[in-house]
Amino acid sequence: MGNDSATGVVFTRNPGDGTRKVFGEYLVNAQGEDVVAGIRTPKTIDFLEKELPHTFIQLMKTCAKLEKHYKEPQDLEFTVEQGKFYMLQTRSAKMNALGMIRTSVEMVKEKLISKERALTRLHPDQLEQLLHKTINQEAVKSHSPLVKGIAASPGAATGVVVFDVKKAVKMGEDGVKVVLVREETKPEDVPAFFASVGILTSRGGKTSHAAVVARGMGKPCIVGCTDMKIDYSTKKFQVDSKTVHEGEVLTIDGSQGIVFLGEIPTVEPEVTSELKTIIQWAEQIKRLGIRANADTPEAARLARNYGAKGIGLCRTERMFNAQDRLGLFVDMIMARNVEERKEVLEKLLVLQKSDFKEILKVMEGYKVTIRLLDPPLHEFLPNIEELINKVHRLENQNSPEELEKTRKILARARELAEINPMMGHRGVRVGITFPEIYEMQVRAICEAAGELLKENTDARAQIMVPQVGSIDELNQIKRIYDTIKLSVESKMGLKLKINFGTMLEVVRSCITADELARTAEFFSFGTNDLTQAVYSFSREDVEGKFLPEYLEKEILQENPFQSVDVNGVGSLMEIAISKGRKNRPDMEIGICGEHGGDPSSISFFHKAGLSYVSASSHRIPIAILAAAQAALADKPKKKTRTKKTKRR
Amino acid sequence: MGNDSATGVVFTRNPGDGTRKVFGEYLVNAQGEDVVAGIRTPKTIDFLEKELPHTFIQLMKTCAKLEKHYKEPQDLEFTVEQGKFYMLQTRSAKMNALGMIRTSVEMVKEKLISKERALTRLHPDQLEQLLHKTINQEAVKSHSPLVKGIAASPGAATGVVVFDVKKAVKMGEDGVKVVLVREETKPEDVPAFFASVGILTSRGGKTSHAAVVARGMGKPCIVGCTDMKIDYSTKKFQVDSKTVHEGEVLTIDGSQGIVFLGEIPTVEPEVTSELKTIIQWAEQIKRLGIRANADTPEAARLARNYGAKGIGLCRTERMFNAQDRLGLFVDMIMARNVEERKEVLEKLLVLQKSDFKEILKVMEGYKVTIRLLDPPLHEFLPNIEELINKVHRLENQNSPEELEKTRKILARARELAEINPMMGHRGVRVGITFPEIYEMQVRAICEAAGELLKENTDARAQIMVPQVGSIDELNQIKRIYDTIKLSVESKMGLKLKINFGTMLEVVRSCITADELARTAEFFSFGTNDLTQAVYSFSREDVEGKFLPEYLEKEILQENPFQSVDVNGVGSLMEIAISKGRKNRPDMEIGICGEHGGDPSSISFFHKAGLSYVSASSHRIPIAILAAAQAALADKPKKKTRTKKTKRR
Question: Taking a C-beta distance cutoff of 8 angstroms, is the pair A101, A275 a contact?
Answer without folding.
Answer: yes
